[in-house]
Write a structure and sequence with these properties.
Oligomer: single chain
Structural class: alpha/beta
Number of strands: 11
Largest sheet: 7 strands, mixed
Order of helices and strands: HHHHHEHHEHEHEHEEHEHHEEHEEH
Number of domains: 2
Strand order of the largest sheet: 1-7-6-5-4-2-3
Radius of gyration: 23 Å
Number of helices: 15
CATH topology of the largest domain: Aspartate Aminotransferase, domain 2
Length: 450
């Protein structure tokens, strides 16, 4: 064995403790370190010829890169929709790496059983009695749901997309009021094409689809419908119950994109926003957002795992064919899969329904508190009601949104991201971190000059 590798193996417990201290240093500095770090551009370093072991690597990382990490795990990182990692989820992630299981099959490991249990728990948490699997994020979850929907369209037409290709389907329509960018990306990957997204009218002043316009579009024949449970800019929700009711009269595959808005189901105060989503054919929920597990983790649900296995089964002779209960390698784009279910299992086991309801409700309270400050400000104005955990607002005078965001980032106090809403340059503040509290809202408001 290579000498440094053997030495590290012999001293592994002490080295893991040093790695723990390095992680503790990062987490312990979240309250004070800049939330958005300045970009680092150190001079290129040649690949080490032999290396000096883990201690030297830790020191090198600390010197070259550690200060450039953002505070995205902390309470005032409000860009995109970014959760942190609860203590239990972090422990689960460490154990995932330590055990290094390939969760593609139930043969020889409990990994698949852990994943099935975690999916069952998530189904209970969300009220979704559907089959599911873990994937890497919302984009991949949407892709899987749309791929199953594409196969369903083939089933209606009497062709197999899996065997004959997407060209066997002819025209494909994907209908949505405010489709997320990942929908177009997924359709590009699936060979359907971005141009096949038909963006339907939305309700006045809303991002929610006009259900009457959707019904009119469905009269033209089978389609895939993407309903939104929480849009990116304003967390608007389609009337999912009304969309599900259309399935009694029209043939369509209903995919619900609930990347973060699906967590409304966790709180009785907001569960009405996703009422009816159990009637969907596939659902996307992103877990490294509001479940607060480390990247990368999402779940996809479907009522047609048989079609899912048609699309994703791996036909290698040494892998076997999918049966009545397919192995996970036959259900997702990946064959080799890390045990990304374990951090979710740990945080659900540690904090249960009540703990995650608390996270959701505290984040919504924080968003509403910021919204009230914006609404009472002379410098900013709200562009939409604060429906859940995102505040969408803009400047009132000549001040540019980009300049405001740059100043906030330079302050180190917070990080927010820009958007455009109904043609207006805007700011998004998305609350989804388990640590965030009233004091953090106050610091964000001070950084914004309110």
């Amino acid at each position: 064995m290579f000498a440094e590798l053997a030495a590290d193996l012999a001293d592994l417990p002490a080295l893991l403790d040093r790695a723990r201290l390095a992680a503790q240093r990062v987490l312990g500095s979240l309250d004070d370190r800049p939330v958005a770090a300045a970009a680092l551009n150190p001079a290129p370093l040649a690949l080490p010829e032999s290396g000096d072991g883990l201690v030297a690597a830790l020191e090198l990382f600390g010197a070259r890169w550690e200060s450039g990490l953002s505070g995205s795990a902390g309470p005032r990182y409000l860009g995109f929709v970014t959760g942190g990692a609860t203590p239990a989820a972090l422990a689960g992630d460490w154990l995932t790496a330590a055990a290094d299981q390939n969760a593609n099959t139930g043969t020889g490991s409990a990994a698949a059983g852990i994943e099935r249990e975690a999916i069952g728990w998530l189904g209970e948490l969300f009220g979704l009695p559907l089959a599911g699997a873990f994937v890497s994020g919302a984009t991949m979850s949407n892709l899987v749901g749309l791929a199953i929907g594409r196969e369903w369209l083939g089933e209606q037409a009497g062709v197999s997309v899996t065997e004959d290709g997407v060209g066997a389907l002819g025209d494909i329509r994907v209908l949505s009021g405010s489709p997320h960018s990942s929908i177009g990306k997924s359709l590009s990957i699936l060979g359907v094409g971005r141009r096949h997204v038909v963006t339907l009218p939305t309700l006045p002043g809303r991002e929610a689809v006009d259900v009457s316009a959707l019904e009119a579009a469905l009269r033209s024949g089978p389609a895939i419908v993407v309903a939104n449970a929480g849009t990116v800019n304003t967390v608007d929700f389609d009337d999912i119950q009304a969309v599900v009711a259309l399935k009694q009269r029209y043939e369509f595959w209903l995919h619900v994109d609930a990347a973060f808005g699906g967590f409304a189901a966790v709180s009785p105060n907001y569960a009405h926003l996703v009422a009816g989503w159990e009637g969907a054919d596939s659902v996307c929920v992103d877990l490294h957002k509001w479940l607060n597990v480390p990247y990368d983790s999402a779940v996809q649900f479907t009522r047609r795992p048989d079609l899912q296995a048609e699309v994703f089964h791996n036909a290698g002779s040494y892998l076997g064919l999918p049966g009545e209960h397919p192995e996970f390698m036959h259900l997702t784009p990946e064959t080799s899969r890390r045990l990304r279910a374990l951090p979710a299992w740990f945080t659900l086991a540690a904090y249960g329904r009540a703990g995650h309801r608390d996270i959701v409700e505290r984040n919504v309270d924080s968003a509403r508190a910021l919204g009230e400050r914006v609404d009472g400000s002379d410098r900013f104005r709200l562009l939409a009601p604060v429906r859940l955990n995102v505040v969408c607002f803009t400047t009132t005078g000549d001040e540019r949104v980009g300049d405001v965001l740059d100043a906030v980032s330079r302050s180190g106090e917070a990080f927010l991201t820009p958007t455009v809403y109904q043609g207006v340059p805007a700011i998004r503040a998305a609350f989804s971190n388990w640590r965030t509290g009233p004091a953090d809202v106050g610091r964000v408001c001070s950084a914004l000059g309110m």
